Amino acid sequence: MEHSTLHILWLNDNPSTAEHMVFMYATNALLQGWWENVHLIVWGATTKLLCESADMQRLVQRFLDEGGQVSACKRCAENLNVLDKLKTIKGIKVYYIGERFSEIIKGTEKLITL
Predict the structure, then answer these.
(1) Cα–Cα distance for residue pair 62/24, rounded to 1 Å
(2) Cα(61)–Cα(68) distance, rounded to whole angstroms?
(3) Are 12 and 18 in contact (CB under 8 A)?
(4) Which one-letter DSSP state was computed for residue 39?
(5) Which of 20, 51, 64, 71 qualifies as a cystine partner to 91, CB 3.0-4.6 A?
(6) Per residue in 91-104, pLDDT tens?
(7) What are 31-35's contacts with CB under 8 Å, separation 24+?
(8) Residues 113 and 7 sit within 8 Å (Cβ to Cβ)
(9) Sign of CA dihedral 103, 3, 13, 71
(10) Which of 111, 6, 18, 29 is nearest to 60 (CA)?
(11) How far apart are CA 26 and CA 32, in angstroms?
């Protein structure tokens, strides 16, 4: 597959959008084989939503269990005072993501923003 990785930039902190679009598509993309790799990027207000919502944490865990990858912006977590909580969520890579994000948008892999 030429473009086997999809990056999803998750910015919308509406729980309904997260459940019924972001996670539904990301998880099914793996289960159905639409994409070989799906990488969810947690950035901005979604960082706080994820840390405060057990439902969002369950959706992330299911996505991870199906083989997805999750990265979260460390600077956002610091600014929103949720870094300690974010670090406790199993399977999420937390780092200053700006440089990696620039590589993604300059590269050939696909990116959608929600």
Answers:
(1) 10
(2) 9
(3) yes
(4) E
(5) 64
(6) 999 999 999 999 99
(7) 31/66, 35/4, 35/5, 35/6
(8) no
(9) negative
(10) 18
(11) 10
Nearest residue to 73 via CA among 37, 112, 41, 109:
41
Instruction: Express each pLDDT in 22-65 by its tens digit.
Output: 999 999 999 999 999 999 999 999 999 999 999 999 999 999 99
**Six token digits for residue 89:** 């969520």
Round to whole Å and give the CA distance between 70 and 2.
Answer: 22
Measured between alpha carbons, how far is 85 from 82 in angstroms, rounded to an integer? 5
Q: Which residues share a beta bridge with 78?
A: none
Return the structure tokens found at 34: 């639409």
If DSSP codes are grouped into helix, strand and coil, which group holds residue 110? strand
